[in-house]
What does this fold into?
Amino acid sequence: MSGEKYKADKKRNRKLLREVIDARFSYEQMGMRSLAQDWNDRTPEEKKQFVDLFGKLLENSYASKIETYRDEKINYVEEVIKDGYAMVKTEIVRKSDTIPVDYKLININGQWLIYDFIIEGVSIIRNYRSQFSKIIQKESYGGLVKKLSAKIEELESSAGDAKADKL
It folds into this structure.
């Protein structure tokens, strides 16, 4: 495959993958939970901006990881539903190992949307909440927005090779 065709296919595939991810994740819930108590201090405009940035961060960081998967099998281990929330436990089975991935979902207007996922026992929301809180305390909310924007640029320019889970 020529370089140009590969780039075009990769761009098209990334767009399709983002559409699937966008339809399954609640970036608003994820943003709210990752900012924790700082969420309530934000204006509606700041909340919208943060949700947009957080969504782009997740899309860029995890889409590139998903694109590397080849011939893996996903086992659905368990599903627990209670009071509008669900936990779906899965395993990604690869030739060399098995990776547990749990998804936390919330029912919003009859649609189940992911608001957290836990890979090998590490919650993505808890991880970002810890980082965001430290940045806000050390710098400011504006400092966090700048770091998020810079990280998104880094991920987009490196085609996902940059370390995604650290700001």
In short: Strands lie at 73-82, 85-93, 98-108, 111-119, 122-123. Residues 23 and 146 are 27 Å apart (CA to CA). The two ends are 35 Å apart (CA to CA). The chain has one domain: 3-157.
